[in-house]
């Protein structure tokens, strides 16, 4: 098949492309590389801020559009799959729909259905937008509501969701928002991780033997999104536990450092704290788990149910409050003999459910089903 993947979130499309190519498909990734992370792509759609950057982006996009024709599958990372306004994306979406066989919409992140469903039906006990029946009113949550509800983004999202051939959700949370509204076209497929690549990287890294037996906690801080993602709460709990148990815990905080340095700090840690308001681990935590870190974050029963995992329970699940995080970290100190088992289970969990080869096979099956329906029509 000829497959075009447009847009990027945390290397989802770049990794999926690797898996699909290994299965013999012709795959092109067109993206901005997910901004500063600069993930690999075949067509560069990165846009800067200055007038020259805008002009350069417009020229590159115009030159790229003729190359985005004639594909069996075009998959969009999000309704806002380009660094343009919704009004400007709409005609490009129509162009892609006209000149390719099938369109797949990714439910991988922020969009109208995620915001609206968490605000209204509240299928989840907690999320980025609600804690039970109480709506979260922090600045980021308010901003996203304003950005997606009653705007051209909402209109564009509804248009693509209603017209596309399939919707793929990468997390349980996003599946719960789309599946009740589009039950016939919504599919859950886990995010892809190139397990072999990460493990080979780990083996290539020089090993230093330290006498420090403290549990090394790792947390990445994005100042602009800290309250929204609950990183501020997780950090407070981690600081408290590190202060109380200095002989047992070393806290490593990554804030505003280059991506390669961020990864190196993660690589030499034991535990990652990530995504307080999530039911499931996302790409950052999944990558860490593939490297043998234990995730303290989202590991609700629904996460294991949707992937039909009956044995492994590697994620230390926390509720969205500081005391829950603190108590689970304290449990880890008191049960540190469990750490090797949890690390091994984390690696096995990723190999079972997120290996990019397995994920690519699931996408291949979905794409063939879509194209089969087109032939019958």
Count of helical regions = 16
The topology string of helices and strands comes to EHEEHEHEHEEHHEHEHEHHEHEHEHEHHH
Poorly predicted segments:
none
Radius of gyration: 21 Å
What is the CATH architecture annotation of the largest domain? 3-Layer(aba) Sandwich
What kind of sheet is the major sheet? 7 strands, parallel
**Which CATH class of the largest domain applies here?**
Alpha Beta
Q: Provide the helix percentage.
A: 40-55%
Query: How many strand elements?
Result: 14
Mean pLDDT: 94
- List the domain count as a whole number: 2
Strand order of the largest sheet: 3-2-1-4-5-8-9
Share of β-strand residues: 15-25%
Shape: globular
The helix-and-strand class reads: alpha/beta
How far apart, in Å, are the first and last alpha carbons? 19 Å
Annotated CATH topology of the largest domain = Rossmann fold
Describe this protein's structure.
The protein has 377 residues and is α/β, with parallel strands linked by helices. It has two domains: 2-192 and 356-376, 3-Layer(aba) Sandwich (Rossmann fold), CATH 3.40.50; 195-353, Rossmann fold (3-Layer(aba) Sandwich), CATH 3.40.50. The protein has helices at residues 12-22, 51-64, 86-99, 112-119, 139-148, 152-163, 172-178, 195-204, 226-229, 231-244, 259-267, 283-290, 301-306, 322-334, 339-353, 356-376, and strands at 2-6, 26-31, 43-44, 73-76, 102-107, 130-131, 134-135, 166-169, 186-188, 215-221, 249-255, 271-273, 294-297, 316-317. The strands form three sheets. Strands 3-2-1-4-5-8-9 form a seven-stranded parallel sheet, sandwiched between helices. Strand 1, helix 1 (12-22) and strand 2 (26-31) form a beta-alpha-beta unit. Helix 1 (12-22) crosses helix 16, helix 4 packs across helix 7 and helix 10 (231-244) packs across helix 14. The longest helix is centred in the C-terminal third of the chain and has 21 residues, at 356-376. The protein is globular. The model has no long low-confidence stretch (mean pLDDT 94).
């Amino acid at each position: 098949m000829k497959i075009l993947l447009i847009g990027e979130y945390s290397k989802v499309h770049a990794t999926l492309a690797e898996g699909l190519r290994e299965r013999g498909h012709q795959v092109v990734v067109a993206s901005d590389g997910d901004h500063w992370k600069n993930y690999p792509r075949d067509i560069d759609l990165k846009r800067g801020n200055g007038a020259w950057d805008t002009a350069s982006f417009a020229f590159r996009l115009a030159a790229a559009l003729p190359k985005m024709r004639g594909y069996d599958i075009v998959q969009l990372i999000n309704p806002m799959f380009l660094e343009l306004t919704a009004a400007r994306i709409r005609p490009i979406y129509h162009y892609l729909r006209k000149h390719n066989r099938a369109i797949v919409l990714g439910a991988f992140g922020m969009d109208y259905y995620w915001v609206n469903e968490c605000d209204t039906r509240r299928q989840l006990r907690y999320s980025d937008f609600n804690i039970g029946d109480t709506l979260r009113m922090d600045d980021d949550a308010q901003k996203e509501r304003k950005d997606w509800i009653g705007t051209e983004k909402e209109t564009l999202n509804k248009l693509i969701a209603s017209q596309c051939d399939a919707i793929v959700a990468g997390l349980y949370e996003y599946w719960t928002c789309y599946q009740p509204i589009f039950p016939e076209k919504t599919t859950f497929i886990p995010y892809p991780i190139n397990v072999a690549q990460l493990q080979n990287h780990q083996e290539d890294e020089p090993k230093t033997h330290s006498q420090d037996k403290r549990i090394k906690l790792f947390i990445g801080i994005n100042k602009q999104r800290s309250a929204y993602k609950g990183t501020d709460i997780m950090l407070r709990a981690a600081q408290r536990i590190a202060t109380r148990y200095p002989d047992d815990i070393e806290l490593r905080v990554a804030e505003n450092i280059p991506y390669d340095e961020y990864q190196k700090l993660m690589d030499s840690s034991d535990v990652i704290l990530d995504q307080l308001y999530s039911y499931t681990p996302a790409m950052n935590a999944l990558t860490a788990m593939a490297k043998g870190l234990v995730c303290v974050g989202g590991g609700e029963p629904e996460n294991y149910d949707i992937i039909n995992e009956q044995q492994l329970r590697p994620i230390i699940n926390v509720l969205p409050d500081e005391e829950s995080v603190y108590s689970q970290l304290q449990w880890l100190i008191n049960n540190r003999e469990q750490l090797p088992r949890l690390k091994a289970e984390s690696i096995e969990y990723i190999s079972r459910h997120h290996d990019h080869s397995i994920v690519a096979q699931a996408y291949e099956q979905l794409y063939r089903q879509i194209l089969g329906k087109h032939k019958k029509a």
